[in-house]
Amino acid sequence: MSKPVVTRFAPSPTGFLHIGGGRTALFNWLYAKHTGGTMLLRIEDTDRERSTDAAIGAIIDGLEWLGLDWEGQTVFQFARAPRHREVVEELLAAGKAYRCYCTPQELEQMREKARAEGRAPRYDGTWRDRDPSEAPPGVKPAIRIKAPLDGETVIHDKVQGDVVIPNKDLDDMVLLRSDGNPTYMLSVVVDDHDMGVTNIIRGDDHLTNAARQMIIYEAMGWEVPIMAHIPLIHGPDGAKLSKRHGALGVDAYRAMGYLPEAMRNYLVRLGWAHGDDEIMSTEQMIEWFDIADVGRSASRFDFAKLENLNGHYMRALSNEALFDAFVSTLPYLPGGEALRAKMTPEKEDQLKAAIPGLKERAKTLVELKDGAMFLFAERPLALDEKASSILDPDARRLLRDIAGVLAGVSEWTVEATEDAVKAFAEARGLKLGKVAQPLRAALTGRSTSPGIFDVLIVLGRTESLGRIGDQATS
Question: Is the pLDDT of residue 409 over 60?
Fold first, then answer.
């Protein structure tokens, strides 16, 4: 009987959780859920100069926003350094590792010689078989593993297929630096083994690391986890994803107004597909996802597709759920805190009433916020450029007349206000748009908004007539 699947997400806290890391976490999470297994979280904080508490917080916050949970306590790699050193002692005792007394200058000379001879710069094994009694005084040794000198290392990769690396291309890598600190290569292997990780799913930029790490597994007599190295994400132009393409932190996507469920749906399809299904629930992703179905070629990030998908998810949410998502995201949106400060119970009610019209025109929560700004504007409204051009002298005189008509509407409803405005337009021989556009500009300060009669009802009789009056002229 096979062991339960255990995956892990293991970011380095030297910055935000970038979008590629978010997809790696999602693939680990989905595969664990699909197989009935578990996902663990390990923070690889061995780079003490660059690892920060703020970055750790941002990673955990990003995972929680994406809706990706993990089993048990978060493991911090640096705290496990004594265990990593213990494994090195075992390898030394078994004759599978050795002390290397090369100075930095000697190592540089080795690299220069290799380059001069057209070889890759690798350690030449100077201390592999030398007696430690020959060690120069005062030099603290690094500990290196004895890598196989011939044959080949084969990575049976679930995504890349069998990857064969000649052992002559792998040198005796350092396990423990001369200052006693474990290297990344060693720490990853020990932690994955001790945490019971059965499946390693990570970016294909780690593929060359895999062969080196397998040497440690085999030296310790440990079972090598099943590996899957997923292609990196590229920009729309096919170049490596950069900030100009969208290689931002997951937190930036929240600030741009994307919903976590839309992000999950978009990210899962960067490199994996289930037939022609574009939109899928989280439950469907879990049911359908298999790491073996991930493609080998890099996927391309496309903001237009993400926006369209997010717009779909916004429209699919109930009005109440979208209101809740919007309000909870306000602190992260540009200008959101200022808007939240204006969110009185009366404004909340107005916003709830406006949501049905707003969500039809918005693809992100930022667009929803921008569309809702007219609710919070103070009189007299500041007009944008298009609204100013609409409100020419003729339009302002029209507003004076329509204000009188609306003031006489007995019941302030969509139907009653629409009937009154239509009757007014017909009486003047005007198309409805010729009346609606000046009304929209006066009521919202913009040339676009939800349906103008919805706007009248949401604002209420007093505020609507006040705004129209501000822009009307005699």
Answer: yes
Pick the CATH number of 385-471 from 3.40.50.2000, 3.40.50.300, 1.10.10.350, 3.90.1300.10: 1.10.10.350
pLDDT over 80 (residue 133):
yes
- Is the confidence at residue 437, as pLDDT, over 90? yes
Instruction: Express each pLDDT in 384-401 by its tens digit.
Output: 999 999 999 999 999 999
Give the model's pLDDT for residue 245: 58
Report pTM: 0.91
Q: Which residue did the predictor score with more confidence, 298 or 15? A: 298
Q: How confident is the model at residue 247 (pLDDT cuts 50, 70, 90)?
A: low
Q: What is the mean pLDDT of residues 287-293?
A: 97
Q: Could you say which of 113, 168, 240, 243 is catalytic? A: 243
Enumerate the domain spans of the chain.
79-187, 250-376, 385-471
243 marked among binding-site residues: yes
* Residue 243 annotated as catalytic: yes
Residue 474 has pLDDT above 50, yes or no: no
Is residue 177 within 8 Å of 191, Cβ to Cβ?
no
Q: Which superfamily does 250-376 belong to?
A: Glutamyl-trna Synthetase; Domain 2 (1.10.1160.10)
Domain 79-187 is in which class? alpha beta
